[in-house]
Each structure stands twice: as C-alpha cells, then as structure tokens.
Design brief:
There is one protein chain. The chain is mostly helical. The chain has one domain. It is built from 8 helices and no strands. The radius of gyration is 18 Å and the shape is globular. InterPro entries: TAT_signal, TAT_signal_bac_arc. This is Twin-arginine translocation signal domain-containing protein.
Length: 181
C-alpha cells in the first residue's frame, strides 16, 4: 500500500515541476514575441491592460465562443462590452497573474508560435470559425498540461466577462441577483 505522504509529496513535486516548466516556456515564448516586435507593453486606446494584438485575437475568438448565445445583431455590442469586462478583470488581477495572461496572449498573437501551437497559420481576423473551434478543441484535449491550462484560462476569463453582464443572463435563464431589502 503506497504511503499517502509520499504520494502527496510526489504530486506536489510534480506540480512544482510543471509550474516551473510552464513559466519557463511562457517566458521564452514571450521573449521571442517581444524580440520580434510582436508584443507591445502599452494598452490600447480606451483600455487599461489589453493591447492592440490582444484585441485582435479576442475579437476573433469571442464570436466563436458566444455563437448561439448571442444573436448576430447583438454581437458587436456584446463584443465591445466583453472586451472591456476582460480588461477590467485583467486590471484587477495580481501583477504575476496579469503577466502570465498577457504572455499567453503574446504566444497566441505571435506568428512564430501561433501556427504550431494553434493550427491557425494566418492572422486571427482571417481565421474561420471552424479553425478557431479546432484550436480550442486541440488545446482542451492536448496531452500537454500547459495547453490545457491555457484553454481553461481563456474560457474562464472570457465566460466570466460575458456572463458577468446583465444582458447575458436572459439566455441562460438567470433572473439576476436577488433584491436586497
């Protein structure tokens, strides 16, 4: 019978190794994005954290994620609100978490890393909905924990931003928060 202390230390050690490898990989990929001029540290006009490349990527991703939940007529309004909600969330993150999220966006925006990691070889605005769905499925079912964590981070960030808006509540049957008396 295995000792539970040993197995918990192994899982802790494995987690620390994975965290170190993930941080190193994101650092190297982010550095390559910075050196190739694909990344900018300044926020886009009207945003606190999100940069132009982040907005391009998210503007391609969000309509695919919200397909069926947002009507075509509402998509532009929803997209703008959601981008600002994501920006506000990132602004409230700890500096370390914000940096990791922006590094993820750098990797996804960099042409050198985007193709091999996502299967989307062209620019995000030209990517089809099917290509974006395949990228998401690829990361969700990846054998690499780092890609699975990236998928989870993208979904959590974007879904919280969307469903945090009152305009999204009707679609999922949420009546809104109870009135305080």
């Amino acid at each position: 019978m295995p000792n539970t202390l040993d197995s918990s230390e192994f899982s802790r050690r494995g987690f620390l190794k994975l965290s170190a490898a993930s941080a190193a990989t994101l650092t190297v990929l982010s550095l390559s994005a910075n050196l190739s001029g694909c990344s900018s540290d300044s926020a886009s006009n009207g945003f606190i954290v999100l940069r132009n490349d982040d907005l391009v990527f998210l503007s391609a991703l969000l309509p695919v994620l919200y397909s069926g939940a947002v009507t075509a007529e509402q998509m532009q309004h929803n997209l703008a609100n959601t981008l600002h909600a994501i920006d506000a969330s990132l602004a409230s993150f700890s500096p370390a978490m914000r940096k990791l999220t922006l590094q993820l966006f750098d990797v996804l925006s960099n042409p050198l890393t985007r193709g091999p990691l996502t299967g989307v070889w062209g620019a995000w605005p030209e990517a089809s909905a099917k290509a974006i769905q395949q990228f998401l499925k690829r990361w969700e079912n990846s054998r690499f924990d780092l890609l699975k964590m990236g998928h989870s981070a993208l979904l959590q960030l974007t879904m919280l931003a969307h469903y945090g808006q009152a305009s999204a509540w009707h679609h999922c049957g949420y009546p809104g928060p109870p009135a305080l008396q």
